[in-house]
Design a protein that fits this description.
Belongs to the ComF/GntX family. Helices cover 35% and strands 14% of the residues. By secondary structure, it is an alpha/beta fold. It has one domain: Rossmann fold (3-Layer(aba) Sandwich), CATH 3.40.50. Strand 6, helix 10 (222-233) and strand 7 form a beta-alpha-beta unit. Helix 6 (111-124) packs across helix 8.
């Protein structure tokens, strides 16, 4: 019988070989400022961009004032999304946005391991969060996958699953409709653009389970909401988004 590791157990495993593995797949320099050294991020960049966790809405991860810690944002109170939790490592803003674009469009696949490590840290530092039973990367459609050659969400999900000790199911969800890229669609059309895009081929894997959905960036949340709604219709008990970067509201 599969069991889900506890947060406490995973914290105890954080330093067991992870640094050596990451140094083997990434250059020995800071990914942000290129300062030489053995760390993926130099101390200055780590402190500047990942040193202090922002106060966020626990449902959608939009930033909130310190006084609203632990509360839902107004948008999630007014119209609750299908997903239950969103955890992110950082805001999608300079200079981190350039790293995301290099992974997504520049074939710098080694960055996925860095993103997974930072996202793992954010997950394990979240009080009271229970790890999912399965991780599911947001799927690409066949055409876009063929054009790009890889799914950046899956590239992040692989090392994330290993470091969390959670099973990864790369084909848990299928994208059955080729949709326009959400970034090319106006905000008010994004929900319509992604409607009906996903299917779950094996309901037995989903029913009654906590599913963690992995992606690189969350902007409007329409794609993640549609996938969560599809998972819930097929019996998922809980859906948590594990996303590297969250685009702040404008």
């Amino acid at each position: 019988m599969l069991t889900t590791p506890t947060i406490g157990t995973m914290r105890a495993l954080l330093h067991r070989g992870g640094a050596a593995l990451l140094r083997g797949v990434l250059p020995a320099s800071c990914a942000l400022c290129a300062a030489g050294g053995d760390e993926l991020l130099c101390p200055d960049c780590a402190a500047q961009f990942f040193g202090v966790a922002a106060v966020r809405c626990p449902r959608c991860a939009n930033p909130l004032p310190d006084s609203a810690r632990g509360q839902l944002c107004g948008a999630c109170r007014a119209e609750p999304p299908a997903f239950d939790v969103t955890l992110v490592a950082a805001d999608y803003a300079m200079p981190l946005d350039q790293l995301v674009l290099q992974l997504k469009f520049g074939h710098r696949l080694a960055l996925a391991t860095l993103f997974a490590r930072l996202l793992r840290d954010a997950v394990l530092q979240q009080p009271g969060f229970t790890l999912p039973a399965l991780l599911c990367p947001v799927p690409l459609g066949p055409r876009r996958l063929a054009e790009r050659g890889y799914n950046q969400a899956l590239e992040i999900a692989r090392p994330l699953a290993r470091s969390l000790g959670v099973a990864l199911h790369p084909r848990l969800a299928w994208r059955v409709q080729e949709t326009a890229a959400q970034s090319s669609v106006t905000p008010e059309r994004r929900r319509h653009n992604i409607a009906g895009a996903f299917a779950i081929p094996d309901m037995a894997l989903v029913q009654g389970r906590h599913i963690g959905v992995v992606d690189d960036v969350m902007t409007s949340g329409a794609t993640l909401n549609e996938l969560a709604a599809t998972l819930k219709r097929h019996g998922a008990a809980q859906v948590s988004n594990l996303v590297f970067a969250r685009t702040p509201p404008h």
